[in-house]
Specification:
The protein is mostly helical. The protein folds into two domains: about 120 residues, no CATH class; about 290 residues, ABC transporter involved in vitamin B12 uptake, BtuC (Orthogonal Bundle), CATH 1.10.3470. The protein is built from 19 helices and two strands. α2 runs parallel beside α6. The two termini are about 40 Å apart.
Length: about 425
């Protein structure tokens, strides 16, 4: 019986192993288009109160009687169309992928990213809730990756990321609200007569300023921390997080504990998607560069790295500031998605969430950080109907991961873009 199951699994795996990434994206595109035009009608036919926004899990937890309907919906809208289209178009998609494989890598990457963005855009058009979850998940990827540079690739333990996010959130909010929005706290906009599209055009400057201030904050932490060894970084970085939170709590001209609102709606899906792609690309290049290799050497054995002429203190400070820079940009986007920023958001709970995403996904892995951020966010939202029980289930899952996979689900794995985008069939099979 067990052998039959293994044979069936092997056949299914072999059947879909020759499908390239392009084929799966085309299948996903067909699925979301089907949902866009027929999703509501199918939900009504299955006697469901609403469209399943997160693959039916939320509906199931709210109304267990909808389990059969949610299962049928997910199979008819997602599973079957994606599998059938990807399988039927595998030869064609492999030919196209083979054509792109002969071109510069960036051409193939841009084509895949455009297709991925279109899939996500159509998927979120049916629900504002989906759009919010997707935006927050992309921002979570940026935060998780930036912390993995420090806690994973550098091998230290930092607790200051919520503080870096707070710096980026407030600086970018002061830039956008102070210059372009009339606000009861910051007063009249300095550039209130300028058209709104100009503000959105210069919005990246505000994000970069937030990232730069966060990097300066990281330098303040790094100077005393990296003069010593051991657990001092964890202690100093945790103190830094509380100092930043307390600072914004007591700055009355920025709203104090009440927070600062009125941020313009400039953190659109295209904007966040582009920043997330840039973050993944730059961090992946950083960890694969000579600096990244030096960082791994410092993590494995600092004394040996020093004997190999690696400037360990400089390497750690650059990596620490680099991670803080991206955390600051993520904080700026986060503030403009919620259109409100509050010091209480960047406390111990945010720290626990970020650390959970890093260690859940996997250390020293760009793919692991992406999986950890998206998986944790979706799991948290899917279990929201369970209320307090959710915070029993999620920590239990994290404990199990730490027991059976101490380094995370996908740890120490290189993010090889060419390997992901290349055709999956040999040239003779594509003919």
């Amino acid at each position: 019986m067990k052998e039959r199951k293994n044979k069936r699994f092997s056949r299914i795996r072999e059947m879909f192993s020759g499908i390239p990434a392009l084929g799966w994206l085309v299948g996903a595109l067909v699925a979301v288009i089907i949902e866009y035009y027929f999703g509501n009608s199918l939900a009504d036919f299955l006697h469901m109160d609403r469209l399943p926004v997160l693959f039916g899990v939320v509906v199931i937890l709210k109304r267990p009687l909808d389990i059969p309907g949610a299962f049928v919906y997910v199979m008819l809208i997602y599973a079957i169309p994606i599998a059938v289209v990807a399988r039927l178009t595998s030869r064609l998609m492999n030919r196209i992928a083979g054509f792109f494989d002969r071109l510069p890598l960036w051409v193939s990457a841009i084509v895949h990213l455009i297709l991925l963005y279109y899939v996500l855009s159509v998927w979120t058009d049916l629900s504002d809730y989906r759009l919010l979850i997707l935006k927050l998940s992309l921002i979570a990827i940026m935060v998780t990756l930036s912390l993995n540079v420090i806690n994973g690739y550098m091998g230290e333990f930092s607790c200051s990321h919520p503080g870096f996010m707070a710096l980026g959130a407030y600086v970018s909010s002061i830039f956008s609200v102070g210059l372009f929005v009339n606000d009861r706290i910051l007063g009249h906009a300095l550039l209130g007569v300028v058209p709104a599209w100009v503000g959105q055009l210069v919005f990246p400057i505000g994000l970069l300023l937030g990232g730069a201030i966060a990097a300066i904050g990281a330098l303040i932490v790094a100077i005393p921390s990296f003069r010593t060894r051991g657990d001092y970084l964890a202690i100093i970085s945790l103190a830094f997080m509380f100092i930043v939170k307390s600072l914004f709590d007591n700055l009355g001209f920025l709203g104090g504990a009440r927070g600062l609102g009125s941020q313009p709606d400039w953190a659109t899906l295209p904007t966040i998607f582009i920043w997330a792609v840039l973050c993944i690309w730059t961090i992946n290049n950083f960890v694969e560069s000579t600096m990244g290799k030096a960082l791994n050497a410092v993590r494995d054995e600092e004394s040996a790295a020093e004997s190999m002429t690696v400037n360990t203190r400089k390497t750690k400070m650059i990596a620490f500031m680099f991670g803080a820079f991206w955390a600051g940009i993520a904080g700026g986007l986060f503030a403009h998605v919620l259109r409100y920023v509050n010091p209480g958001t960047f406390g111990l709970r945010k720290l626990a969430e970020v650390l959970a995403m890093v260690y859940f996904g996997g250390l020293n892995s760009v793919i692991g950080s992406i999986v950890g951020a998206v998986g944790f966010n979706l799991l948290s939202e899917m279990l929201r109907p369970l209320e307090i029980i959710k915070w029993i289930i999620i920590p239990t899952l994290l404990i199990l991961v730490m027991i059976f996979r101490p380094t995370g689900l996908i740890a120490f794995k290189h993010f090889d873009v060419r390997e992901i985008l290349k055709p999956k069939l040999k040239a003779k099979e594509r003919m």
